[in-house]
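Protocol step 4 of 6: structure prediction from sequence.
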Amino acid sequence: MTDHRAFIVAHARPLPVPSLPQITLYQADEVTPLWLMTEAQMDQSRLAPPFWAFAWSGGQALSRYLFEQPQIVQERRVLDLACGSGLVGIAAALCGAQAVVCNDIDPHAEAAVALNGELNGVELGFITGDLLGRPAPDVEVILAGDICYEKPMTEAMLTFLRRGLAQGCEVYVGDPHRTYFPATGFERCARYDVMTNPDIEDAAVKPASVWRLIS
């Protein structure tokens, strides 16, 4: 954990989230150099991009929606699934959640969540490893941003989210209209034009929607 914290501090810097300037995250200026350095540090030739180092558009949209509708999380136990930087979890905490736990499989993400929580004056728990084959933890709300970028991952995520819904959780997803987002089973709650990093998306401003899982 200490090495991961040092890596993040050395290669990213605290910056306001483009569409949510009230939140500050450790963010990278460029994706490719950081990706290569992350691979070198982890001694892996095929490592997922450093999702923790950017404020992705779906997460920004979901966070904006929480600030507009804070009653969704107020005094409730919340999971930020596939959390990356912890942006959505931080938004939930700032909006009055009783407790927020974040989850990601990237070992850098745990360090990023801790650092970003400190930057924003909130306390976030963390569950390490893959939750998708397990029951949802003891929470009342599950939040997930940018989970539909690959078909197999989307299917696994949706299976977990539907399991959470069946357990009584409310489930909200932020998505920038990616190809694999399902056409059914959700109702749209909001739509935003989100400022993002053109190095990681195909435009500097992306449309993104917030959806509530209903089936």
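Step 5 (inspection) to follow. Residues 39 and 199 are 18 Å apart (CA to CA).
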